[in-house]
Amino acid sequence: MSKSSGRTPCTSEVAKRQHQASRLLTSSVYPQ
């Protein structure tokens, strides 16, 4: 992964955050 723009400091960090958000959304829509 190459830095195209200095917007995202760490791609993995962003991906982790997005995954967390999607998981929260899923759990709110489909409570276990």
Short description:
This protein is an all-alpha fold. It has one helix at residues 11-29. The chain is 59% helix and 0% strand.
Assembly of the depicted chains:
single chain
Content-based structural category: mainly alpha
- State the end-to-end distance: 36 Å
Helical proportion, percent range? 55-70%
| Total number of strands | 0
Largest β-sheet summary: none
| Gyration radius from CA atoms, angstroms | 13 Å
Backbone shape: rod-shaped
Segments where pLDDT lies below 50 for 5+ residues?
A: none
Tally the helices: 1
Average pLDDT, to the nearest integer? 73
Strand content: under 5%
Topology order in helix (H) and strand (E) letters:
H
Describe the protein's architecture and organization.
By secondary structure, the protein is mostly helical. Helices cover 59% and strands 0% of the residues. The longest helix is centred in the middle third of the chain and has 19 residues. The N and C termini lie far apart (36 Å).
Which descriptors would you attach to this protein?
single chain, 1 helix, mainly alpha, 32 residues, rod-shaped
